[in-house]
Amino acid sequence: MSNVADQLIERFADAIWSEEGLSDNTLSAYCSDLETFERWLTPRKIPLSHVARADILAYLAHLAGQGSRPRSTARLLS
User: Fold this and answer.
1) How far apart are CA 27 and CA 18, in angstroms?
2) Mean per-residue pLDDT over the chain, rounded
3) What is the pTM of this model?
């Protein structure tokens, strides 16, 4: 994972924790989801800082094609 992606995920975690007071487990799950998404983006040469709506939809379609359950996909989208 790139240093920029690490920083973005850390900033997101800090912001969401301070705004919503999430548990450590929930915060860890969100960070893990973002790290997995970033790993999917890397071979496509799409930096996390430049993700477009179409990239998110392509990722969700990829997960659905691999058998991801709708509830899991909805959680990732949130």
Assistant:
1) 11
2) 88
3) 0.81
